[in-house]
Amino acid sequence: KNEVEQSPQNLTAQEGEFITINCSYSVGISALHWLQQHPGGGIVSLFMLSSGKKKHGRLIATINIQEKHSSLHITASHPRDSAVYICAVLDSNYQLIWGAGTKLIIKP
Amino acid sequence: EAQVTQNPRYLITVTGKKLTVTCSQNMNHEYMSWYRQDPGLGLRQIYYSMNVEVTDKGDVPEGYKVSRKEKRNFPLILESPSPNQTSLYFCASSLMALGPYNSPLHFGNGTRLTVT
User: Fold this and answer.
1) Which residues contact B61 (CB under 8 A, 6 or more apart)?
2) What is the DSSP letter of A85?
3) Separation of alpha carbons B8 and A107, rounded Å
4) Left (φ > 0), alpha (ψ -120 to 50) or beta: where does A92 sit?
5) Cβ-count burial of B33 within 10 angstroms (0-12 exposed, 13-18 middle, 19+ buried)?
6) Record: contact A44-B107, CB cut-off 8 A
7) Tens digit of pLDDT for each residue in B72-97?
């Protein structure tokens, strides 16, 4: 069983829809990262959080430490949001454990 | 512009021919790391460095070498590449020595390596 599991693996939605991507983990963590990988391959850090909620534009990331779960939400989704979204958790040895990613396609 | 620069973007080589993928950052970051990305496996860490002259193995270090002689540069060396090292490679850096514990990662654009 993977220590970091993302769901869904693939998600296709229409422009404007509210998107939720989930990340569950089984290890104790000190931080959780959400990253975006563009179709061209480049990777951009979106959020780093250890508690609560963070918001940046149309993106919202939440984490529930007790439930070992984080969600990434996209409001008013747009085709340019199409990308692979990756969750990574930092374990107690300060090593990142990576999820396999969620491929999101937003159709116009 | 603050960035992590990897070169080359694409590289095709033959088994056994030594190669180096360069990585340079201009943000005075302490932490640097190399990852490989393969379909269905996500990112896997090869080596990382918390500061100059300090390097440590990641999850998949076999067949790779690194060095950190200067803060800005962290080259990845494949002494004798093999086809199973065909992959997409990313260099990343982060401000603080603990890296992803207390600061976000900045990634290079990736190097697609093919070993025949």
Assistant:
1) B46, B47
2) E
3) 33
4) alpha
5) buried
6) yes
7) 999 999 999 999 999 999 999 998 76
Residue A61, Cβ density class (10 Å: 0-12 exposed, 13-18 middle, ≥19 buried): buried
| pLDDT < 50 positions in chain A | none
Nearest chain A residue to B98 by CA: give it.
A94
Tell me the chain B residues in contact with residue A35 when contact means C-beta distances shorter than 8 Å: 105
Task: Quote the percentage of chain A above a pLDDT of 70.
Answer: 99
Please tell me whether the peptide bond between B8 and the residue prior to it is cis, using omega within 30 degrees of 0.
yes
Chain B contacts to A (CB-CB under 8 A): 40-45, 58, 88, 90, 92, 98-107, 109-110, 112
Q: What are residue B84's phi and psi, to 5 degrees? A: -75, 0
Closest CB to A30 among B43, B44, B101? B101
pLDDT at A41: 80
**Locus of tokens 């990305």:** B37
B38-56: per-residue pLDDT in tens? 987 889 999 999 899 999 9
